[in-house]
Amino acid sequence: MVNDGVVNSTSPAGVRLRWDVFLSFRGEDTRHGITQSLYSCLVENGIRVFRDDDRLDRGDQIAPSLLEAIEDSAASIVILSRDYASSHWCLEELARICELKRLILPVFYEVDPSHVRKQRGPFEKAFCSHENRFGIDKVKIWRNAMETVGGIAGWVFTENR
Q: What's the pLDDT tens digit per position in 44-68?
């Protein structure tokens, strides 16, 4: 919960977090479309938004600066697109976002929320691939986070084609 920028949930009383919103998204899918539009709109309305502007180096660990930004944000907007789950970086972000138990606002971008919740459709193959690379225990954490976010009422957005 935010009241004049002060978080009343999992942060110590009276502590102002650096960011109002952390944007979680799969860059290849949405960076120059919906993510850019949403970011611009939020910033124009005075919302302090963290958006990863730098392409992450490929590796096995999420950048510590991203985890710090998640922890220093009052809420997260998660833009779930078809290839979101193919990125272990996105899934690490999502797991940390869920751990913090702060406000999560999901945007289901050209995906069915039930596919997110049940890891079906475009998500099924990604999770199977991750199990081979990262192991069942790690992927179980990611699956639980995806199920949690898929169960939150959000916005379903489909581009007119």
A: 999 999 998 644 445 545 678 889 9
Residue with tokens 């869920």: 98
Backbone angles phi, psi at 20, to 5 degrees: -80, -40
Q: Which among 28, 68, 92, 93 is annotated as catalytic? A: 93
What's the domain count of the chain? Answer: 1
Beta carbons of 70 and 22 less than 8 angstroms apart:
yes
Q: Which residues contact 54 (CB under 8 A, 6 or more apart)?
A: none
Tell me whether residue 68 is one of the annotated catalytic residues: no
Any idea what the CATH number is for the domain that residue 69 is in? 3.40.50.10140
Report the chain's mean pLDDT, rounded to a whole number: 87
How would you class 57 by CB atoms within 10 Å of its CB: exposed for 0-12, middle for 13-18, buried for 19 or more? exposed
Which domain does 130 fall in, by range?
2-157
122-153 confidence digits (pLDDT tens): 899 999 999 999 999 999 999 999 999 999 99
Instruction: Give the tokens for residue 3.
Output: 């009241």
